[in-house]
Amino acid sequence: MRVENWDTKLSNYIVQEQSKKFIRGKSDCVNFVLGGIEVIIGKKVFDRPYKSLKEAKAILKELKKKNLLDIAQDIAIENNFKEIHTNLARRGDVVFLKTDEELGGTMGICQGEVSIFKAKVGQETRPTNKCDIAWRIE
Phi-psi bin for 31: left (phi > 0), alpha (psi -120 to 50), beta? Predict the structure, then answer.
């Protein structure tokens, strides 16, 4: 269930994160989304620290997952986040965009027609309906 005033809290969180430099394991796409989920529902859904791509890959191996999408799907199931078509995603939902990156993709926070992603060059937006998967965060 979303907390009271989640929309204002999420807006403030996104603005706050905008000025943070990309640091793997601190302010990357995974932690950006996990922080957004925590703001929206008031609880942590995944807490596995890592400081490098090598450490992130070690977590994948330990959890017997092939990529970031596998972990995202497990987190969604564990927290009853319903998978939805990206055309149905609304503000505060989580989206996944498959890419050729090391972990198989990137995660973002839906803002309506566009979704925000944390990237090495800062925050980027992509059309939500161009993402591959979305989950309703409630």
Answer: alpha
